[in-house]
Structures are given as C-alpha cells and as structure tokens.
C-alpha cells in the first residue's frame, strides 16, 4: 500500500534524467524521473517515483507512475539503450529497495512511435525465476532453477566445523532435511557483450542456506530480447570463495 508521510515534500523533484531518441524519430528526447523527497535532510528515501518522457519535437510530456509496490526507495536511476534491436533507445529504470535484502525494483519501457509499453517488470520476473536449494549428503547443496530446469551442485565441505556440525552426522549424512532460500532481483546490469550497441541484461539473485545471512552465492541470468520478452540466454551460479 502506498504510504503518505507528513515528512515528505508535497512538490515532486527531478531525481534522475537522460537524453536519447526513445521514440525512434531520430530526434533526441528528454527522459526524467521525479519523486517526493523527505523534508529530513538526513533521509534519502523517495516516494511516488514517476517516469516522464518529453518529446524532442513537440515538447509534450507523457508521465508514467511506476507500480505502487515498486515506486519508492533509494537512488533511482535511468539508463537509455537499445534492448530490442529496433534502433530506438529503450528506458531502464532502477530503484534500490533498501533494507538488508538489498533488492532492486527494475523496469524497462519502450516508447516507439510515442507509445509507452512496459516490456520488463521485476515482480513478474521474480515470480517466474525461483530456485530450489536443497542440502544433500556428503557436504553438497543442489540448486535447481524452476524456470529452466538447470541444476547446479555446490560443495560446502570447506565451511567451518561448527557450521557443518549443525547439518551433518560424522559420516557426512544429513541430520535432517534442510532447504535454503532465494531472493528476488538484487542486481540488474545492462551489458553489450558483442559491442553491437544492442544491450542485454545480467540479472542477479542471491541464494542462501540456513538463514538469509548464510549466503551461498548468486544465480546470474543473462537476459536477451527474443522479439516478445526477455528470455534467459545463459545461466550461471557464482559462489563465494573461502580463505585457504
């Protein structure tokens, strides 16, 4: 539910901006985000973050209020780049949620021919990309992507003795069934691997073990526009190293 705080200013301010041809007419447009700031100078929390697109020819402005569940947070930024390979810049909006989860709210919009179309939404992505994290005998953890069916195996035998004794018997068998957890998006990075001026996304999701702070690593999905949606082109599991 959207919160209305008396300590927020009543006047929206521009918090991020960028220039690019987002409607495909060859003329540079102005794209910017506005938000309500806190009257407390020590707070950087923003609410009612709104996207605005000013046509470079007519100067008319179209405004898009971001989804209610993801239009508040910290450090909103804009990135303009061609994700759909149509020659026009698309609009990437990113917002940090704050808190210990370090989650991010991410949207991608197109504005071809002055029509707003949201082609990526972080909530839908998080719902579709979840993972089963299961502890196995012999100091292993299995991580399975529900979306792709890909399975990864981690060894955790280098973890501390105290940690392992919570989980395993002396012969390396599990004391009981244990499952871990996965988070939503916590990193959403545009990349141009082929240097073709067409961008992909590297999307990060943290996986954890016994508790949230027990980080096991990150699932990294490379997302590429397939003409209808952002599809997973590559999928990796990145793990944390241990001191020798």
The SSE order reads: EEEEEEEEHEEEHEEEE
Q: State the end-to-end CA separation.
A: 48 Å
What percentage of residues falls in helices of 4 or more residues? under 10%
CATH class of the largest domain: Mainly Beta
Second-tier CATH architecture of the largest domain? Beta Barrel
Residues in β-strands, percent: over 45%
Number of domains: 2
Strand order across the biggest sheet? 1-2-3-4
Structural class comes to mainly beta
Q: How many beta strands in the DSSP annotation?
A: 15
Q: Biggest sheet, open or closed, and with what strands and sense?
A: 4 strands, antiparallel
CATH topology of the largest domain, anyone? Lipocalin
Radius of gyration: 21 Å
The backbone outline, from C-alpha atoms, is elongated
Q: Runs with pLDDT <50, length 5+?
A: none
Q: Count of helices?
A: 2
- State mean pLDDT (0 to 100 scale): 93
Explain this structure.
- The protein has 244 residues and is mostly beta strands.
- The protein has 2 domains: 13-126, Lipocalin (Beta Barrel), CATH 2.40.128; 129-239, no CATH class.
- The chain contains 2 helices and 15 strands.
- The strands form 4 sheets. It has a 4-stranded antiparallel β-sheet, with no helix packed on it.
- A hairpin with a 7-residue loop joins strand 6 and strand 7.
- The longest helix is centred in the middle third of the chain and has 7 residues, at 122-128.
């Amino acid at each position: 539910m959207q919160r209305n705080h008396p300590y927020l200013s009543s006047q929206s301010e521009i918090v991020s901006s960028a220039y690019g041809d987002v409607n495909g007419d060859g003329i540079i447009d102005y794209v910017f985000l506005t938000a309500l700031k806190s009257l407390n100078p020590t707070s950087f929390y923003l609410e009612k973050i709104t996207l605005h697109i000013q046509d470079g020819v007519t100067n008319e402005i179209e405004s898009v209020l971001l989804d209610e569940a993801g239009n508040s947070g910290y450090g909103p930024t804009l990135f303009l780049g061609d994700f759909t390979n149509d020659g026009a810049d698309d609009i990437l909006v990113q917002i940090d949620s704050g808190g210990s989860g370090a989650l991010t709210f991410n949207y991608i919009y197109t504005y071809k021919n002055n029509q707003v179309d949201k082609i990526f939404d972080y909530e839908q992505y998080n719902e579709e990309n979840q993972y089963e994290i299961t502890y196995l005998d012999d100091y292993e953890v299995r991580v399975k992507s529900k979306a792709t069916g890909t399975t990864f195996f981690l060894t955790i035998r280098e973890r501390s003795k105290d940690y392992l004794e919570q989980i395993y018997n002396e012969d390396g068998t599990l004391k009981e069934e244990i499952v871990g957890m996965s988070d939503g998006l916590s990193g959403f990075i545009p990349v141009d691997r082929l240097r073709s001026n067409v961008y992909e996304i590297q999307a990060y999701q943290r996986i954890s073990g016994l508790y949230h702070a027990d980080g096991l690593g990150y699932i990294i999905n490379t997302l590429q526009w397939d003409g209808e949606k952002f599809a997973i082109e590559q999928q990796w599991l990145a793990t944390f190293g241990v001191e020798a």
